[in-house]
Amino acid sequence: MENINNVTEFILLGLSQNKKIKNLCFLLFLFCYMAIWMGNTLIMISITCSQLRDQPMYFFLNYLALSDLCYTSTVTPKLITDLLAERNVISYNNCMAQLFTMHFFGGIEVFILTVMAYDRYVAICKPLHYTSIMSRQRCNALVTACCAGAFLHSFVQCLLTVNLPFCGPNEIDHYFCDVYPLLKLACTDTHTVGILVVANSGMMGLVTFVVLMLSYFLILWTIRAYPAESRSKALSTCSSHLMVVVLFFVPVLFIYIRPATTSPVDKVFALFYTIIAPMFNPLIYTLRNVEMKNALRKVWCQKPLWIGKHFI
Hints:
The chain has helices spanning about 20-50, 55-75, 75-80, 90-125, 130-135, 135-160, 180-185, 190-225, 230-255, 265-285, 290-300, and strands at about 10, 90, 170, 305, 310. The protein is mainly α. The protein has one domain: Rhopdopsin 7-helix transmembrane proteins (Up-down Bundle). The strands form two sheets. A three-stranded mixed sheet has the order 2-1-3. Strands 4-5 form a two-stranded antiparallel ribbon.
């Protein structure tokens, strides 16, 4: 079958067509987007300007905050501006670009969370070898591997979609371009492509989630014999990470692990991993982490010391 593509633009139906709801959502998501930028930027500056940058855990947290910013910025600005527009249009090329960048930065976040779980596993289960295993060279290599894996995932996802013919309806029942809504519009049999998408996105998310849960099971099994104080500190650190993992992975798995179908509730679940999770990640990591709170105080609350006519 010849690949025919008569569609040059798509119409995003968004979250709602009700004017009042759209205005309310505009204010809500504008606030959320500002909070995402403020929270994640605060974390990155606080880690970079403190001694925490030398610790692998915070080295990865810095990259997680950066990936959160990039990930949500592929979707949220367009969503906010569309809430004020009468007709929400996105060109074919911009749609494919949004699809690629969203899955690229989302993939980085998935792999960074996995690397952070591995870091906690080594720190708690193999403390004597932690420094040698999680050297700065190893940390840089892990981040590079996360980016490479995310690029491969996103490239395959985009390749499967670009080759689809679009010759009919161009209304996407979503607030951003994603694979499943696009499969619904393709004027060809997408059963095989749908299976490949599930294998690429759904299975990647499921395997990663299982690995994460297994690592935390091993951590809990190891710390059961620890003294109460050490056990409490380990649980505090791991619980923060686990909350972030659940907040991000559960909605992702709900959408991508099932067969290639769409549902109106998908848009609600998508809000969790595109907006809500990036907004709450800084709060979870700062409010439940003593070292992070101390770093914030040192960087942002220290008073300048006067020496003669100068201050430092």
